[in-house]
Design brief:
The protein has a single domain, classed as Gcn5-related N-acetyltransferase (GNAT) (Aminopeptidase), CATH 3.40.630.30. Helix content is 29%, strand content 33%. The protein contains 4 helices and 7 strands. It has a 7-stranded mixed beta sheet, sandwiched between helices. Helix 1 crosses helix 2. The mean pLDDT is 96.
């Protein structure tokens, strides 16, 4: 197995992205969706992020997409335009090998280069210790949990908010 190669995601990656995300939807709590979106829906979402000028990265291992990460609008109102929410998904066959960290670090750098000033992590389930620790290791500060806001897999789930300044953050005006 060769090391991961990072690159901008493309529409050709949608089948792999859809497969990776479907597994997360069906078996995990990173996403609060209950039914996996179709390839057409995932392509629509990707295009919307591209059109909005947001970073969207793919990681390949041995020529196959093994993970992806993107940043999107934290909230739709104009005053939030310099804040983004991160999303990172890794194929279950290669989880716990550092690929999420590589993707998130590259996503942070890409978002900074695009002029975004804050990155928010909205982590599904306060029991997602690996995701929380990954974000903490890359400079995110704990904001706190929002308790029992989702119901999935027969149980109530929290979301955990974490935040990281990008570039100069709020020390200067954009």
């Amino acid at each position: 197995m060769t090391g991961p190669a990072l690159r901008p995601a493309t529409p050709a990656d949608i089948p792999a992205i859809t497969r990776i995300y479907a597994h997360a939807v069906l078996h995990g709590t990173a996403s609060f969706e209950l039914d996996p979106p179709t390839e057409d829906e995932m392509a629509r979402r990707q295009k919307s992020l591209f059109d909005g000028g947001y970073p969207y990265l793919a990681a390949e291992i041995d020529g196959a997409v093994a993970g992806y990460a993107y940043a999107g609008a934290y909230r739709p109102r104009p005053a939030y335009r310099f804040s983004v929410e991160d999303s990172v998904y890794v194929d279950p066959a290669v989880q716990r090998r550092g690929l999420g960290r590589i993707l998130l670090a590259a996503l942070i750098e890409d978002a900074e280069q695009r002029g975004f000033r804050q990155m928010i992590a909205v982590i599904g389930d306060s029991a997602q210790t690996p995701s929380i620790e990954l974000h903490r290791a890359l400079g995110f500060n704990m904001i706190g949990p929002i308790e029992n806001v989702g119901f999935k897999h027969g149980r109530w789930l929290d979301t955990v908010l974490m935040q990281r300044a990008l570039g100069p953050g709020a020390t200067t005006n954009p």
